[in-house]
Amino acid sequence: MTSSAGSSCTSTPRQKQRRSSRRSCHTPGRDSQALSALGDFQTLPLEIFQMVLNYLSVKDISMLSMVSKTISSRLINYISTSSGTRRLLLQDFHNPELPGRKGASILEHYKSLGLLLKRCTLLLPTRDRLKYVHKVLSGVSCFKLNGCASPLHCLGLQCYGVFLQILTAGWDELECHRVFNFLWELSNLARKVQTVVSGKPGSARRLELRIRLYCRGVLLWPGSQRSDSAFWLTRILKPWPMVNQARLLYIIFGPVSSLDGHVVWQKMIEGPTDESSLKGLADAIKLLYGTEAREWTADDVISLVDELSVVPQEWLMENNARLLLLSGNSICFTFLASKAVNGRAVELARLMVFMALVCEKDLYCMDWAVKMMQKVCKVFSTAWERNNFLQCLESTFARMLMDMLQAVLAGERDEEDSSFLNLFHLVNAQANFHKEILYLAMGSSSST
């Protein structure tokens, strides 16, 4: 037994030779598998392979990355080389047309680059993908919040945004949270946002502009789907108290100067504004009120609109009314109904009169305002509350007409003769508003 045990535990020289030959054949086998994954490219030296890539479009390189893991790893190495960086990280962000490629925009180039890096890093964890992408893009100054000296005339942040949009398309919500946290920390946005929402409006104008451009270009890229925009806008706003959310919403979507791009804080206070100044804010409110924004309740959005109407001071009522009209029927009715439920009949009546005025000025159908008033009347729990609201409505019409008439008679005129124009619009608004009510009442009586 001892002898057999000894023979089983010892190896003959021939057995050792066979084992060593098996070991020596193992590594070449792996190498041959890696080479076979390269296909016809295995015959090319690495330098020649990279020279070939210079003749391929970014879309073609992106397709090539899907051939095998080996080729993908070679492409990752190529992207990190100086020639790959020069080839792929175009930085002519102040010229929308790519040199030498007629009609090809730099935005399309970064869409293709986003898809390339998405495919090359497909097997990496999210954290490692983000680190790699940051390493590749870190040398592009125009991708940074304070990186460009002329941000209003630069497409850098938009290119970064469309790149990230393609890169993260299809990622689940947890991964997108990680992307946001990564960008938030990378740009030190928390401290910067804290500065602009807690300080006096306009005291950090350049920083306000930078935050606006970064959020709109990188996180809220215009081509995004509504669900994606709702997600990113929620991430931007939710960390802050409601009063700061309203301030930040105004910074990102409020009116800006056509001369220097800075936020115009007094626009809603000094006089009636136009639709273009309010459209961005209205679209953002509709987005948060829609089904895509799951983390927002109707009460949240109503509170946000209320806070927004006093940023930086109380708005003119006409601007409040115009914002509500642009925000759509649902949010408009919910806002008005909340006033009715809370017994704020006088405020509700003033808002309703200004809605009629906006309908007249902006050429909306006046029957919309009448039907909205009819819906709001159904919210009141008693006939007395409804009749009190209607009385407040008529009193508001009369008081505003008298005030405007007094201003005209006192000769308070400017270059545009706005006092007379306001009186003209309000008289027509009242006439058309009551005409629609008469049509509604006579139609009901004739049908009975």
TrEMBL record:
<feature type="region of interest" description="Disordered">
    <location>
        <begin position="1"/>
        <end position="31"/>
    </location>
</feature>
<dbReference type="Pfam" id="PF24467">
    <property type="entry name" value="ARM_FBXO47"/>
</dbReference>
<dbReference type="InterPro" id="IPR038946">
    <property type="entry name" value="FBXO47"/>
</dbReference>
<feature type="compositionally biased region" description="Polar residues">
    <location>
        <begin position="1"/>
        <end position="14"/>
    </location>
</feature>
<feature type="domain" description="F-box">
    <location>
        <begin position="38"/>
        <end position="88"/>
    </location>
</feature>
<dbReference type="Pfam" id="PF00646">
    <property type="entry name" value="F-box"/>
</dbReference>
<dbReference type="InterPro" id="IPR056622">
    <property type="entry name" value="ARM_FBXO47"/>
</dbReference>
<dbReference type="InterPro" id="IPR001810">
    <property type="entry name" value="F-box_dom"/>
</dbReference>
<feature type="compositionally biased region" description="Basic residues">
    <location>
        <begin position="15"/>
        <end position="25"/>
    </location>
</feature>
<dbReference type="InterPro" id="IPR036047">
    <property type="entry name" value="F-box-like_dom_sf"/>
</dbReference>
<protein>
    <submittedName>
        <fullName>FBX47 protein</fullName>
    </submittedName>
</protein>
